Amino acid sequence: MIASLFSRAKQGLGVELTPERVNIAQLQQLKSGIKMTSLSSVPMPEGAFHDGRIVDVMAIADAIRQGLEEKKVKLKQAASAVPIGEAVIRLIKLPAELDDFELRDMVLNQEAALYLPFPREEADVDYQKLGTTIDEDGIERVEVLLVATPKEITESYINVFAQAGLQLNFLEVSSFALMRTIRNQLLQFAPGEAVAVVDIEYDGTEISIVMDGIPQFNRKVPIGTQQIQAAISRAMNLPTAMGVDLLSSMTVPVSPTDGGASNPSAAAIIRVLGDLADEIRRSVDFYLNQGEDLEIAQVLLAGPGAGVGQIDEFFTQRLNLTATLVDPVENLGLQLPQDVSAEKRPGLGTVVGLGLRGAQ
Fold first, then answer.
1. Where are the alpha helices (DSSP H) in 187-327?
2. pTM of the prediction?
3. Can you list the residues of the chain whose pLDDT is less than 50?
4. Which one, 1, 20, 81, 350, has least CB within 10 Å?
């Protein structure tokens, strides 16, 4: 059982596990605002974390300890997140006359089993009661956000953190942590306006359609920086590992004068990002087809892949929707260590959101 769910310390430690790296951010609440007192990122041991699942507990625990030791972090309570692909997220509507006890019983013991692709007894389930709505028949309903993960996933995270000498106080879905970071940005949209939050990670991209701060639709597609790096390496006949360094220094061509067609590596980026744009468009269209008068106001780009030059302009052109980079520093007025470069900021959204669980 993950304890102290609603505790509010003045410091928070976020630990993000990805197939490529272990990211650790320590945040502190000061009178002048929120300060990132330390940030470390160490390579994820090869094969230790695959398809969103922990494979090698001890190897990952060692990597976490290395990151903590590098920055001399003393905090012992942490927050982490499971990838969106390892969670079931559903927005459901139930009779508004249910009291809190009846609602809890119905969600956890009846409704959850309807949406899970695995047995209810093998799931850790939580929910958040939202507002009420009036349905087409004039009946008042309460909206509930239901979230579930397999127990084996939850237990593996708790085990890893225990082996690393940490207590895992918070375990949530990665997209929720990102939304916490960009909360101020989301509040700028009018009620009823939805945005597509596109988190371009190493092994795939998490797409969330969010309206009024509530996720309406979630999907992960297998196109991320790994696929972009591999395409660059193939186009230039280089070892795959060299694509990592090349990607970080490249700019996405967005006009004929950028030379995309004549440059093999640029053409490779365009092909992969074009495929990703198609997947984003499919997700947007799926959401828009769920009802009348629905609209997507903007696309918010986050994750390590969002640090590629001009990627926001590329998606703006391809999607015919304004695409904007997520910047945790601007969103939160975050005070950063001097060694954090501007192109790395979009990739900090999730780990910063995890650190906020304790720092606010």
1. 225-235, 242-248, 264-288, 311-319
2. 0.91
3. 1-9
4. 1
